């Protein structure tokens, strides 16, 4: 996440604008006609997967909330499920999780992907 914010700290690293260029590459992929799923994970944390409710959003809207992070294991599971489920095809979304114990752990990935309405 962060690709819509030109002032994001990651855009000042190296040659600059890393997230802006990443977002342009995602747009190129979406426009190419090749089937895709783009998962824009929030801040990655080293916590156990499968124990949190996952949240999807678009255009960095989750960065304005308290739910900006997601366990690496959950990102891996979402990626695997995206390969298996038609509901994830040709979609791009931000991914974060509620704190452990808040909400119910996500197990229905078809329903999670169905919440995504944006193609890019």
Structure characterization notes:
- The relative contact order is 0.22.
- It contains 3 helices and 5 strands; from the N terminus they run αββββαβα.
- The radius of gyration is 14 Å and the shape is globular.
- It has helices at residues 18-31, 72-84, 109-114; strands spanning 37-41, 43-45, 54-57, 69-71, 91-97.
- The strands form 2 sheets. The chain has a 3-stranded mixed beta sheet with strand order 1-5-3, with helices on one face. It has a two-stranded parallel ribbon with strand order 2-4.
- It is 28% helix and 18% strand.
- With 120 residues, the protein is α/β, with parallel strands linked by helices.
- The mean pLDDT is 86.
Keywords:
5 strands; globular
Strand content: 15-25%
Question: Strand pairing plus helix content: what structural class?
Answer: alpha/beta
What is the residue-averaged pLDDT? 86
DSSP E strands, number: 5
- Main beta sheet: 3 strands, mixed
Fraction in helix: 25-40%
Strand order of the largest sheet: 1-5-3
Low-confidence stretches: none
Task: Please trace the helix and strand order, writing H or E for each element.
Answer: HEEEEHEH
In angstroms, what is the radius of gyration?
A: 14 Å
Distance between the termini: 13 Å
Write down the oligomeric state.
single chain
What is the number of helical segments per DSSP (H or I, 4+ residues)? 3
State the shape.
Answer: globular
